Amino acid sequence: MQEDVALPTSTGAEEVAWSAQGNVGVSGNVAIAKVTSSLDQDTSGELVANTSSGTRVLKAASAKLLAAEEPQAGRSVAEKTTSISFNMEANHYYLITKDNDMEDRLPKDHKSAITGGWRRYLWDGAITWDGLEWNTTYYLYDYDLKDSKTVETKTIKTSKGKIGGSIQLSKDMAAGATLKATLKDTLTTKGTWEWEKAESPTSKDWTLLAKDANEKDGNTESSYVLKQDDSSAYIRATFTAKDTAFEGSITACSATVVKAPLSSIRIYTDAERKTAATAADMVVDKRLYALVEPSNFDTEVEYTWHHFKEDGSLEETVQGRGTTYLLQGKDVKEKIGVKAVAKGEGGASGTVTSERFDQAVQAAPTETPSKAPVLAESEDKSIEDTSVTVKMPEAYTKGNGLYQFAFSKAGSGGVKTEYKVYARGSNPVTITGLEARTKYYIYVKAVGENGHLDSEYTSQSLEVMTKNPFVKGTLEITSTGTGYRYGDTLNVAIKGEDQKQTGEYTWYLVNDDGSRGDSLTTAAPDGYFILLQDTDYIGHRLEVVLAGTGNYGGEISAQSEIIQLAEQSPPAQILINKNVITDSTVEVQLPTLSESLQGERFNIGYSKLEDGVPEEYRPDNKKVQYTSGQEVLIEGLQRNTTYYFFLRFDANKKHEKSDWASKGISIKTLQTQFDGAIYFE
Questions:
Q1: What are phi and psi of 12, to 5 degrees?
Q2: pLDDT tens digits, residue range 535-550?
Q3: For residue 525, what is the DSSP state?
């Protein structure tokens, strides 16, 4: 299958190194032909001679040989003509013809052979004879005119060619339109047509719609009228060749599905969309369902729910989307409608709107609570003389719902009075305005929300008895003396009281956090005053409480201002000069106090001015308290200086320190005696 060719290794003057490219090869100094059985493969190549003086390139080619010895007809393709390929022998003459009796009419010489259509080849290899007809029997003559004068004949039949070309479809895909298919650039127009539909252009299952079995020439067109039932489907046309020379089919599918107009839309009350809705169904909490006609477009439309305008058109505002809609509070007193708009990618087209019901949407009834109210806390905390605090049981409401309470006075014949405060879930509500020492019945109803009506009041009730009437009035505390100081008396007066009420007063100490502390007095009807004679009161407020007694309950109270230390008057007596004086000290004696003042302590003050502000005397810078009759040596004074000495009472746990006494004593320190000697030189 291959023949090697020796290549020169030298030009005589210089050595040659060989290389190859393409469909030839080199092994040392031998060129190798790459033989192929493919008639379409390129057999050309290059031999490259490399020398020291340069490079030379030689064109080369390998032969084509058919792998099979017998002639081969061309493959079936979409061409007007075909071919036959065969192996040839050098210097033989070849002819391909439909004539099967050429052996008696062989050419006598080269000229007659060539003019008779014979072909001569000067090499061995394979050749392809083009321009032949499809589906035709041919005879291949191999004639050795030069040497043996023998002829060899072989019979070959060509295949059928492919139809080629394409189908063009018209664009109108609306139901009722005529879809037209036209052949373009096909190699035959003789054949039959079929029309089919499927859900997808790539579907494997197509449904036959129509068939034209007329195998006529020039059958270049076919048409199909699109039906309503074809909506949402893709349509394809197929042309199948029925020609002696050509075979095969070509197909064209529509780019879009068949479009059909929506005809109507209705509203239903069941998920299966079988029971049509009526005006009586227009009640909150009713679930509605929509369905278009044709119903096969259900998934190819967008449903939107709207309110109707007075003129019968739909408002633009969308209340809901989808096939189902639950009537809500926002729909009350409105007329509901639904609209379906075809999606662009589906088979539906257009827009439809439901009919308007005569009845607007009505509020829905609310079920009456099955439980009565309960006290918000204990009876002692929830019931007062003129009020009661109630709630709904938490286990019943679970935190949901809105409720309103009403009360009925015993003996009123069941007349209910609504209390205008709502309770969410189990939140408490205090009902006020009741009468003291009176029996009441408390009822409850559910307040309608989001388009629901209020329920009826419960038949069961909570029975309560209000407490005795509470004492009334305002307590006002006043103080004797300079006001709210130790030693004063606090008095309380009441204003705006019920003249029939009875009660008892109790005084309490108020804690630092403002809460009520320990009681200071026992409860008594005449306990409306208290003497501030306990030092524990100082720095605190006192609270007086009037608690009802007899047929009265409750309490009223008031707090005083903060109790302060008492104010103290200056001492009436003055210091006694002991006449023990030096240039820096004086000795004085404190006056003797009466027995009631024996617990008081003095401060001594001094000034160099008679009407100056005294400065407290603090030996060694330490504060000192002096007792009644105590003798004191005042040190650290200046010589030959007059000092004025005053007294005041120091502060204690009962009173503040007093002012300095306006009257004092004066003492002059002595001059310093000269002690020493003077020497002269």
A1: 100, -30
A2: 999 999 999 999 999 9
A3: T
**Pair of tokens at residue 614:** 């005294």
What string of DSSP letters covers 97-151? ES-S-GGGG--SSHHHHHHTT-EE-SS-EEEEEEEEPTT-EEEEEEE-TTTT--E
Alpha-carbon gap, residue 25 to 82, rounded angstroms: 33
Comparing CA positions, the residue from 156, 157, 244, 238 lying closest to residue 197 is: 238
SS3 letters across 9-61: CECCCCECEEEEEECEEEECCEEEECCECCCCCCCEEEEEEEECCEEEEEEEE
> What pLDDT shows up at residue 35?
45
Confidence of residue 124 (pLDDT cuts 50, 70, 90): confident
Q: How far is CA 587 from CA 90, 217, 367, 494, 617, in A?
A: 166, 158, 100, 59, 13
pLDDT score of 677: 65
Q: What is the CA radius of gyration of the chain?
A: 64
DSSP 566-610: BP-PPPSS--EEEEEE-SS-EEEEPPPPPGGGTT--EEEEEESST
Q: CA–CA separation, 220 vs 183, rounded Å?
A: 5
Query: Sheet harboring 439-446: ordered strands across?
Result: 417-424, 402-409, 439-446, 462-465
Angle formed at CA 459 by CA 458 and CA 465, multiple of 5 degrees: 95
Is the preceding omega at residue 294 within 30 degrees of 0, hence cis?
yes
Which sign, positive or negative, has the C-alpha torsion 126, 131, 134, 136?
A: negative
In the structure, what pLDDT confidence band is assigned to residue 500 with cuts at 50, 70 and 90?
Answer: very high
Q: Are 229 and 205 in contact (CB under 8 A)?
A: no
C-alpha closest to that of 529 among 588, 569, 489: 489
- Look at the chain and count its residues: 681
Residue 23 has pLDDT above 70, yes or no: no
Helix%, strand%, coil% for the chain, nearest 5: 5, 45, 50
Would you say 201 and 286 are in contact if contact means Cβ atoms under 8 Å apart?
no
Residue 609: how many CB atoms within 10 A of its CB?
10
| Single-letter amino acid code for the residue at 294 | P
User: Tens digits of per-residue pLDDT, 357-415?
Assistant: 999 999 999 999 999 999 999 999 999 999 999 999 999 999 999 999 999 999 999 99
- Encoded amino acid at 440, one letter: Y
- Look at the block and give the residue holding tokens 């009161």: 537
Residue 674 has pLDDT above 90, yes or no: no
Token reading at 427: 């939140």
Within 10 angstroms of residue 397's Cβ, the number of other Cβ atoms is 20
Residue 342: strand, helix, or coil:
strand
Interatomic CA distance for residues 479 and 492, integer angstroms = 9
Confidence of residue 17 (pLDDT cuts 50, 70, 90): confident
Q: Is 534 helix (H, G, I), strand (E, B) or coil?
A: coil
Distance from C-alpha of 73 to C-alpha of 138, rounded to nearest angstrom: 10
Residue 75 has pLDDT above 90, yes or no: yes
Q: Which residues pair with 291 in a beta bridge?
A: 266
Average pLDDT, whole number, for the chain?
Answer: 91
